[in-house]
Design goal:
Two copies of one chain form a homodimer. By secondary structure, chain A is an alpha+beta fold. Chain A has helices at residues 8-17, 62-69, 83-92, 166-183; strands at 22-23, 25-30, 35-40, 43-48, 51-58, 72-77, 104-107, 110-113, 118-130, 133-145, 153-155, 158-160. A seven-stranded antiparallel beta sheet of chain A has the order 3-2-6-9-10-5-4. In chain A, strands 1-11-12 form a three-stranded antiparallel beta sheet, with no helix packed on it. The longest helix of chain A has 18 residues, at 166-183.
């Protein structure tokens, strides 16, 4: 079923989805020839029995052929400081160039971002096609975590991050109260 | 495949997933007898050809039988002020009680939260089972949006929201500077 670009329901759906905040992840794999990476927000936990994840990939994306051929893939949850990696793997760079920015290593043969908030390596177990996309299901085989919890977030067509630590807001409020008492 | 609660990989996966920020949504349906609602973070866009969404639901959840019998479902993306609705539909309330809090209406026979950030009504088109969960695929049939973009976000086991408007931070800074000048 094709939807024309000017389909009003597609246009409204896009507007509605601008309101869905998501963590930004880079999905990576090695297809036996080379490594591949693609920025994605359509990444989610699926089950804990067994621990498993889903990733939705457009069949028109170059990454689709790579993940289709790979036995494993990794989900690398980006930190707020990883905007350059998100943009590079989101279209600015191509192929191996996508690994020029960032601290890339590997885990069980899969490229991983060593300072990702979390890196979740999965064995590909199933694929379901619907419309323009495939849903890939992976069973978790390896986990890594790095640093404080401060993920990069995508909302309303832009990047943002979580609010600063409550203690910062509290400190500002305390300073305002203190200065008020001195000033008044 | 069963995973014991003390499976170290499941425990690590849970820790890693605390680092994945998500919008909070309430998924709703009418199964022909009554209306049902369940809080979910495993909700995502799937395709724009056709406009479609996915929702992952635990087969052990009461909501699973309801969405399984329903022809349509709605994804209601919560606003930062909807924490009570998230908690009610996340387990505190049961059945019809879940609709006691919030401005509920209906759209093409499906319960919708009229002041949700966005409400996305879908015709159920496919279901795929994996592990403990089912992935439901819905083709978008109706969209509603409400208010400024300010979604409720779940991260690290707690609720939060996007950082306040820059103008608020700027206003606090201006007040601090002004008070400093008066006080010093």
């Amino acid at each position: 079923m094709q939807t024309l670009p000017d389909d009003p329901l597609a246009a409204q759906t896009k507007l509605a989805l601008r309101r869905l905040a998501s963590s930004v992840a880079v999905v990576t794999c090695h297809d036996g020839h080379s490594r591949h990476a693609m920025t994605a927000t359509a990444v989610n936990a699926l089950s804990m029995q067994p621990p498993s994840m889903i990733v939705c990939v457009n069949r028109a994306a170059a990454f689709h052929a790579a993940i289709n051929d790979a036995a494993r893939f990794a989900i690398n949850i980006l930190h707020r400081n990883h905007v350059d990696i998100s943009m590079g793997c989101g279209g600015k760079a191509r192929g191996e160039e996508r690994f020029e920015f960032g601290a890339w290593g590997e885990d069980t043969g899969v490229p991983v971002l060593t300072d990702a908030q979390a890196r979740i390596v999965c064995a590909k177990e199933a694929k379901f096609d619907y419309g323009s996309h495939s849903i890939f299901i992976g069973r978790v085989v390896s986990i890594g975590m790095h640093g404080e919890i401060d993920p990069l977030i995508y909302i309303d067509g832009r990047y943002t991050c979580l609010p600063a630590d409550q203690s910062v807001a509290t400190a500002a409020q305390v300073e305002i109260e203190m200065l008020r008492q001195i000033a008044m």
